[in-house]
Amino acid sequence: MRLNEPVRPGRPPVREPFPLGHLRATVSRGYRPGTTWSTPVRYVLDGRPEPRGAREAADALRPAPATGTAVALVAPTYVGRGTLAEQEERLDALLERVVEAADAHPDVGVLLFVGMQWRDAAEEKEALRRLAALVRRAAARAPGVRACGLSLRGPGKPRTLNAAFAVARTLGCAGVGWLDDDVTLEPGCLAHLVRAFVTDGCRGAVGATKVPHTAAYATSRALARAKAVAAPATCYPHGCCVLVATDVVAGGMPDRYVSDDGYVCFRLLDPGLPDPLRYLRLVPEARCHYVVAGPAGETRRRIRRLLLNHLIDLADWPLPVARYYFRHVLFGGMWPLTGFDRARGVRHGAAVAAIKWLYFCWFCGVGAELYVRGLLRRPLREVRWAPYSAVRNPSPAFEESR
User: Fold this and answer.
1) pTM, two decimal places
2) Which site from 7, 291, 330, 345 is most exposed, i.e. has the minimal number of CB atoms within 10 Å?
3) d(CA 398, CA 187)
């Protein structure tokens, strides 16, 4: 399994046609993050002294005697996401899935990290209080799963992930998975993910199959219909529910990248293989439910963020990888620029092309901004997070019948 490395940002890659190399280098130069994912972390364990650093946290979590294969699961959230009672409810739902995975694979050790981000001193105190309660709850409800809380300043999901990666790597975990707090996992979801990951030799990345739900907004319904016809970039594991080989994320996500699933995808995508997505697999039996979009303004900001992430990745990574992603993952079916999608007939293929061209126009508009910024040496300093403030977790039929 080959792991790709990004080229040096803003430098034209060698052996690339000048117009394309100039375009990619200039767009890359149009973004220079002004922040870092590196930040102090406080570790919260149930009934034990607070570790000083990732190594001490790993020592405290290390089982005696040591087990064989182990995976770490990360549940990132933040103080403003809801009340403690709401976060306990989400944790309980997650613990059911984690216990299923541990019971289905007794030879695989399972660790759980709960990340809690905060903005100021008052929220930091609240984060520590909540983590103590959540870790205590995890120990009571899932005694076979070692749990650790991570308290750190936000925003930025990669900060929480990198903190967990450091401990997991020190522990020698074969894989690290993470799960967003705005999705609902079906029974057996994590058990199926762990099985697929272990069966394939703990390589690459496996992800849950996403099941969309609409919210009570016109934008949600419209976007859901468009995605049902021509969903872009949905054929590889997404960061809402994914399990990744630890060596893929060893050292953590670089400060430059905001999209966790984009980083994993570009690390593992291999155009030289008969199946370039060989190490990026969706598991059909592992299903998670999510809500498509939200209010119009928030959805617009969310799409802009997605496009910025696509553009930065396409500008930064080796050309063969970027070319395959552009032609077959992001804009596949955008005839005549890319191939025509005949899988479901000519009419459907024409609809796919029309939707992809609309998306491409938006993509070009955001790309033009980065290009001009790169030319003027006035780079964008931040890709802002764009949460949906008024959208609750979906309640699929299997939950309503419980």
Assistant:
1) 0.93
2) 345
3) 8
- Return the closest-CA partner of residue 255 out of 32, 27, 48, 43: 32
Terminus-to-terminus CA distance in the chain, angstroms? 42
CB contact set of 247 (below 8 Å; sequence gap of 6+): 3
The pLDDT tens digits of the residues spanning 103-160 come to: 999 999 999 999 999 999 999 999 999 999 999 999 999 999 999 999 999 999 999 9
Three-state SS for 323? helix
Sheet strands side by side (includes 41-44)? 41-44, 146-153, 109-118, 70-78, 175-179, 241-245, 205-214, 280-292, 184-185
Q: Kindly give the pairing relationship between strand 205-214 and strand 146-153.
A: unpaired
Inter-residue contact 7 to 13 (CB < 8 Å): yes
Residue type, 88: E
Return the domain boundaries, the chain: 18-400
Q: For 142-284, where are the alpha helices, taking DSSP H only?
A: 157-171, 189-199, 218-230, 260-268
Residue 274's CB: how many other CB atoms inside 10 A? 6
Specify the DSSP element, H or E, that contains 375.
helix 346-376
> Rounded to an integer, what distance in angstroms lies between the CA atom of residue 363 and that of residue 306?
9
CB 128 within 8 A of CB 151: yes
Q: What is the pLDDT of residues 5-35, one digit of tens each?
A: 998 766 655 678 889 999 999 999 999 999 8
Can you give the pLDDT at residue 41? 97
Pairing of the two strands 241-245 and 175-179? antiparallel
